[in-house]
Amino acid sequence: MIGSLRGEVIEKGEGCLLLDVNGVGYIVNTPAPVLDQVEVGSQLFVRTFLHVRENALTLFGFTEAESLEMFEALLSVQGIGPKVALAIQSHLSNEAIQQAVARGEAAILARVPGIGPKKAKQIAFQLKGKITFDEIFSEPVPISDDDGEVIAALTTLGYSIVEAQAALQNLPQSAKEEGVEEKIRLALSSMAKL
């Protein structure tokens, strides 16, 4: 079993990267936020999950232990395979998934491509016993006045508070310093892709 890898990112592809570990190149499937953060030539440490099928060995990598745990929790849901679990984590932060499950807002999960309303309800139901909700609400994320305005604007447009918070959390790091209007535009753009 391969538990982790540390090496140089030598290529980035769609949904994966090529990691050179002491001369051996590993193709590692990663969520979109990880791909967005890493640069070719940089050093990267990932915790890995090895998916074994009859005709393939596929590696999935995560930069945080919590993300790997969420991936494994998603895999425990009947009918969710690694590609779907990775798609969920590419579109929603761990906090957004936890809050959607905690509050029973399956509609947030249904916004991920390939997840219909029925499957979203199943995920929310089956994860309910596997996520400890005390952790979610014990450390509230500080919200600036600008972020509060963005959330208010998105909820006025019909999105739930959890959806609005998830969109805000999933904004690229470069957008954190933008003005309210630009953050709203970027958040709407990211939600339109779901």
Please specify the SSE layout and strand pairing.
Blueprint: E1 4-12, E2 16-21, E3 24-29, H1 32-37, E4 43-53, E5 56-62, H2 65-75, H3 82-91, H4 94-102, H5 106-110, H6 117-127, H7 133-138, H8 145-156, H9 161-169, H10 180-192
Parallel strand pairs: 3-5
Antiparallel strand pairs: 1-2, 1-4, 2-3, 4-5
Helix pairs in contact: 2-3, 4-9, 8-9, 8-10
Characterization of this structure:
The chain has 194 residues and is α+β, with helices and mostly antiparallel strands. It has three domains: 4-62, OB fold (Dihydrolipoamide Acetyltransferase, E2P); 65-138, DNA polymerase, domain 1 (Orthogonal Bundle), CATH 1.10.150.20; 145-192, Helicase, Ruva Protein, domain 3, CATH 1.10.8. It has ten helices and five strands, in the order βββαββααααααααα. It has a five-stranded mixed β-barrel. It is globular and about 50 Å long. The two termini are 33 Å apart. 30% of the residues are buried. Residues 134-142 have low confidence and may be disordered.
